[in-house]
Amino acid sequence: xxxxxxVQAEVxxxxxxxxxxxxxxxxxxxxxxxxxxxxxxxYIPSQMSDYPAYLNNALGANSKVHHSxxxxxELSHIIEKTEREIYERTIGSSIKPKEYRHNLAGQRTxxxxxxxxxxxxVSSLAEPLAVTIDTPTAxxxxxxxxxxxxxGYDLFILESMKNHGVVQVITDDGDFxxxxxxxxxxxxRNVIQAARTQGRLIKR
Length: 204
Hints:
The chain has 204 residues and is of the alpha/beta class.
């Protein structure tokens, strides 16, 4: 089923955009995954090239680049899942996540090493956007949830962006286009087409 995005953000196609020194980006987890994780996979091969290339161009242009501490939680989850799937293909059978995490010491060491290596790169390339998850932040996130179709992690990432005055996000996640007053930098063709149809695709 096609996704019916209600595009509220401004959308920029990163395959034709050139980052600028005045840009300040929050880089989403999926982009860090493709850039920093040695065994990263993707259903769309261009994701593995478009996003790392754009982020490298942003760094080369002296754009400000930010990450969220919450990205570590997401990135750890995705890396562990990918490593488990690689292991399953190796042994030719499936294994439950808890069994993989607790019963296979060698695999656990590998997972931890991959996460540490990936996060080391994130930390060296980007500045953190701090977020305090307290009652006011949780209330703001719940209010946001009523009108913006994003997941729980992204609710708090968006709050951290708002608190730091960052309005630009590099992501393949179409959920972000439901958020008003931000700019979504993406190569997601479905998102770009929806933005074009709804008059929200811009060129800088």
